Structures are given as structure tokens and as C-alpha cells.
């Protein structure tokens, strides 16, 4: 297959870009590829909302910029922060024109929530399923474009570069170029070749590297791993944000149900095993401190009391108010026997968001030519060492637009590269035991959760690296000798992402933002990004 524009990922970043490209170039082909259903994305599971300044009487760009810089703990790119905050309102307006519905007051003004780290009420939301509503609006708009083709249930194996012509490509190679991708067609079980003039990676996050995450099963860090293998630049992978309040359900692994930060924004109070409101011991902002502080505080209380969770107290809410704003959370809690008007909600931190990723410039360009990245898989410089709540959806839309602007200027000067060889599967056989893959995945998640979680130290990081080295060696042997499957490809990608997280954490000899190392409890004077 050949396409002018190839989009890998169908969340808010990928669909915003695809829609803009399709409208600008009705005569050109746009292919959107996803490994699952079209709407199975991290976007779909975003609850709280989108942070944007659209009430200049009570808010300002300067306040939003300052809040973002404070949360980022010295590592934000200020120019990028200003771009996202100032261009954000126009992108949200476009989304509303495409059909997204945000909650409104009786007078017609938008309801605005407040979350940790924000100085003002600026979070637009749709109940507690904001991401799902945004995804719906975008898919509806994309389906109205005749030149967008959705390819579902295809797994991207690798990015095509000069390496596939037989050239030696390394980090020092100038002008590495992307020509498209190899994909595993899950319907035919064959490896196919898709050539593209311009490719956008919008592959989302990597929460599945950890034992418990708010991310869906598809969040396996595929884009980051592929770019690293293609010798592209990866940045700040040590900054993994753990959402402080995932619903704690005994015995449940994998995808944890998120209790949005907006619940605390509306007055929810964190309490420890003894019923004490403990956040005032850790930060003057109490329950609305930035996520890194709240997650570490909860981790500290859990370790001190020997429990696996703390409590989120919403008993002082009226039932009507809670159901109006958080109907999804209310129903979920009720389904497991928790009436929020009578009982507190058990919560614990879970892996939530990767602040690092594929290093890009202010136009979303990666270090590989004709390859863009935006959304959670990218490291644009907005989040620094810690993402401010509800900035991610805004970033995805702003950078999808900027990728579109830059790609539109160059598309007519590009051509296809037709010399890429077909995939060679000679000598491979069907894997005889799936246990080799599933057990390695469990080991990876256990290692990352136990050694590279909210709190780290050098001994834990060294242990993690040794175990990851062994897992990588075993998985590469399996990859070379076996016919490919989504499970094997995802495991390979997750091991690579785990390695990058540990490597970044090992290089950072300080505690900053989401990275807390007990061997280096203070910040250093050397403020730098870790580029791998």
C-alpha cells in the first residue's frame, strides 16, 4: 500500500491531525491505522477534562503558564508551554465545532472544574467521560471525510528507514528518513509493507509496563520503542506519572478504574487508615497539590500503616451533585458495593502517564525526517518533570495542528521510496508455548512496579536493569526464531520501554518531579533533559 499521509493511532492526537490533513488535501490519501478498534485509545479513558483558558475575566494565559511551569519542576520548555496555552483556546473551539459537547451552566457558560496544581477553575469537561466524548466527536467528523481510510487490527512492527536498504544506521547517522512501516495484518497474519510520504506516530502511552495502570491494554509504548530501534531520539522516560487515585479492588491487576482528580477538585478528601486527612502534612495545597506530591504522600501513608490503599472521602457530597458530575464513577463504585454517600472510596496510585517520549521540536518533528510524533508518545517539552492535570488533551490537539501545518508545507516536495524489500520470515516457526511470552510479561510488570515505581534507589534500578537485560535477550531470541504475534511484538516493545525508563532513572542523580530517588533526595543544580 502507498499513502501520502500515514497516521498510527486513533486517539485525539491522530484523529485531529488526520481530519485537518483530509480537509486541506481532499485529493490526497490519508490512512489511519490502529491495532484495535478505532475508539480503543487512551483518549477514551480520560475522565477529568481539558485545561484551557477561555474565561479571561477570571483567568489568564500567564496563570496557566505559571501553573504548568511549577508542576514541571524546572524542566519545561517555556516557549512550548506558551505555545500550548495560547494556541489551546482555538483548538478547543475547533473541537466544539466538530461536535464535542462540554457541560454548561444554566446561563449557557461552560462549567469549569479545578484540579491539582491549577490556580483557577479552567477544566472543561463532559461529566466524568470527557475523553470518550471528544473521541466520539472526532470519529464522527473523520467518518464524514471520504479520503480517510481506517485500517483496524493491524500491528505496526517497525519504521522503515535506510536501515532496510542495508545501510548501517546509528545515532550519529545524519538525515535518517522514514519511508513508512512494516505491519502485521491480524486478519491475514502476514507482514505487509505500507509506504508513506509522511508518517505521524500518535501511539499513546506505556502504562502496561507496570502491574497496575489506568491505561487500557493497548498502551504498550509501541511508538517509543519503534523510534528507539530506528535510532531516533527519546527523552525523559524516567518521568512516569502515577495517578494518585485509582480505585483499589483487591486481586485486580492490569487496567485499574480511574477516580478523576476532579473529585478532589470538587472537595473530595484523602484520608489514611486512621481516618486522618493527611495531605496537609505534605503540602500546603493539601489534596490539590500536583500529582507527584500527592502520589508520594499516599505511597508514604500506605507504607507507614502497612495498607494497600488509602481512602477518598466524598461522604459530604450530596448524592445529586456527585451523580451529576461523576455518574460513571458513582455507577462503578455502586457495582462493587460502595455507596459514596455512606462509605469512603479505597484508592491507590497507578501508572498513568508518560511525560517523556519521542523527542520533538515545536512543530512535532522527531529526529527522523518525515516522521512526526504527538500526544502521549511524544516529549514536546510541555510537561517537564511532571504533567499538570488535564494538560495532555490540550497538548495533543495543539501539536496535532502544528504537525499538520508543517507536513502540509512539505508534502508536495516528497516522493515514495519503492526500494524497500518485503518482509523476510524465512526460518521462523510458530511459537510452541505462549507461556514464554505471558510469563515474561508478568516478570517485566513485577520488576517495573517493585523497583521503578513512585520511589526508587540505585540498588533497585541496578536490579531492574539486570533482569530487563535477561528478559530482552530471551525475547529477542524468540523474535528471531518465531513467526510474529501481537503478544510477542508488544512484549518486545514493553521491554524496550522499561529499559528506557530504567536507563533514564539511572542517569538522573537527583530527585525532581516524578522521579524520586532516596539516594539523591534533593534537586541538583544541573537542570537537564536525559536524551537516549
Topology summary:
Layout: E1 2-8, H1 12-24, E2 30-33, E3 50-51, H2 61-72, H3 78-97, E4 123-124, H4 130-143, E5 148-151, E6 154-160, E7 180-185, E8 190-201, E9 212-213, H5 222-229, E10 234-235, E11 240-247, E12 254-255, H6 262-265, E13 269-271, H7 291-305, E14 310-313, H8 319-325, H9 327-335, E15 345-354, E16 357-359, E17 371-373, E18 378-379, H10 392-410, H11 435-451, H12 458-481, H13 486-507
Parallel strand pairs: 1-2, 1-8, 2-5, 8-17, 9-12, 16-18
Antiparallel strand pairs: 3-4, 6-7, 7-8, 10-16, 11-15, 13-14, 14-15
Helix pairs in contact: 1-4, 1-10, 2-3, 3-10, 5-13, 8-9, 11-12, 11-13, 12-13
Can you summarize this structure?
The chain is built from 13 helices and 18 strands.
